[in-house]
Amino acid sequence: MNELFDDFKSIVVNNTPLIDVRAPVEFKKGSFLHAANLPIMNDEERHDIGICYKNNGNAKALELGHQLVRGDIKEKRVQAWLDFMDSNPDALLYCFRGGQRSKIAQSWMQEKGRKIVRLKGGYKAFRGYLLNELEHFNQQFKPIILGGRTGSGKTIELKKMQNAIDLEGLANHRGSSFGQKITPQTSQINFENNLAYRLIQKREEGLKTLVFEDEGKHIGTVFMPDSFIPVMSKAPLVILETPIDKRIEITLDEYVVKAQEVYESAGFTDAFKVWQESIENAMYRIKKRLGNQKYSEVCMLFKNALEEQKRNSSFDGYKEWVAYLLQNYYDPMYDYQIQKRSKQVVFKGSAEEIKEYIERVI
């Protein structure tokens, strides 16, 4: 049995589970949605076999591989694949190029009476397919950009739209100076792969107009694909207008209430202190743009809010701090950027008005 599969579109559309038998170091650089890293070799074994291959050729490297992965080690790794197949009977198998590692894994599973199909061309071929989808983005979709000041609720509204793609969510970043999260950002490769997944799925739903939040070339440490930048920079821009009191409420919930909950659930010994330090570090990063006086003022407001929360467990003290940040840091910066792109703006309105406008034009 040596079955191969190369209908990559069906993998994306069906969210097919995948077994990635590459070494952990390879998996960390980039993988696919719904893929589990169940390696046939660990990093050290892969390193040793690679040296052997370079010095002595394929036959000797293959021989060393079988020496390193045998007995209990082999049984445990095969059992991990079988356990995954028990929960995901439609799973497919791949290594880097669809060569020896996945072929050996396939044969070992067959010895246990379990058939599994492997990807033709492996990771490299599937990755190439996804990159090609990104490259032809402008030929398949018409983008609309959703803008608005910080705290206007853009992400909240995007999540309500069937034809929207949340780029910040894919990047695992909140897109601001306070946008860092506890969990690391998605790698560049994973960001591209996950974005391609979303595009393919939206296309198969019959959607041709997609809504994206207003982003720059970078979202934290990841950057937009080259094919996106010229298209997005000229796309029509709709501006979500939200009253300042609502913006304060949304920002307070994100930066303070939910953020503290995340730090607590992460199991830090002093979660409140760790969260406090993360905010103080974020404020220090914007010190130069704020200037010394405003930096001192915003730090004092934050200190007062901390003390109030400690005294009576209230978040109300943070409202003044959030308002100061919005009006003295975020708003001037955003308004300046929007002024430079005024020709792109095609509509401004409330959340409901934005929804009605987009429904009319798609």
What can you tell me about this protein's structure?
- GO terms for molecular function: tRNA 2-selenouridine synthase activity.
- This is tRNA 2-selenouridine(34) synthase MnmH.
- Keywords: Selenium.
- Residues 12-135 form the Rhodanese domain.
- The chain has 18 helices and twelve strands.
- It is an alpha/beta fold.
- It folds into two domains: 4-130, Oxidized Rhodanese, domain 1; 136-362, Rossmann fold (3-Layer(aba) Sandwich), CATH 3.40.50.
- Strands 1-5-4-2-3 form a five-stranded parallel sheet.
- Helix 7 (122-135) packs across helix 11, helix 13 packs across helix 14 and helix 16 runs antiparallel to helix 17 (318-340).
- It is globular and about 70 Å long.
Topology:
Layout: E1 4-5, H1 8-13, E2 18-20, H2 24-29, E3 35-37, H3 43-56, H4 58-68, H5 71-87, E4 92-94, H6 100-111, E5 117-119, H7 122-135, H8 137-140, E6 142-147, H9 154-158, E7 164-165, H10 167-171, H11 188-204, E8 209-213, E9 218-219, E10 222-223, H12 229-234, E11 237-240, H13 244-265, H14 271-285, H15 287-290, H16 292-312, H17 318-340, E12 345-349, H18 351-361
Parallel strand pairs: 1-5, 2-3, 2-4, 4-5, 6-8, 6-11, 7-8, 11-12
Antiparallel strand pairs: 9-10
Helix pairs in contact: 3-4, 7-11, 13-14, 13-17, 14-16, 16-17
Protein name: tRNA 2-selenouridine(34) synthase MnmH
Keywords: Selenium
GO molecular function: tRNA 2-selenouridine synthase activity
> How are the strands of the largest sheet arranged?
1-5-4-2-3
Into how many domains do the coordinates divide? 2
Report the portion of residues in β strands: 5-15%
Low-confidence stretches: none
Q: Major beta sheet, specifics?
A: 5 strands, parallel
Shape: globular
Work out the helix count: 18
CATH architecture of the largest domain: 3-Layer(aba) Sandwich
| Average pLDDT taken over every residue | 93
Radius of gyration: 25 Å
Q: Could you please say which CATH topology of the largest domain applies here?
A: Rossmann fold
Structural class given helices, strands, pairing?
alpha/beta
Number of strands: 12
Distance between the termini: 48 Å
Which CATH first-tier class of the largest domain would you pick? Alpha Beta
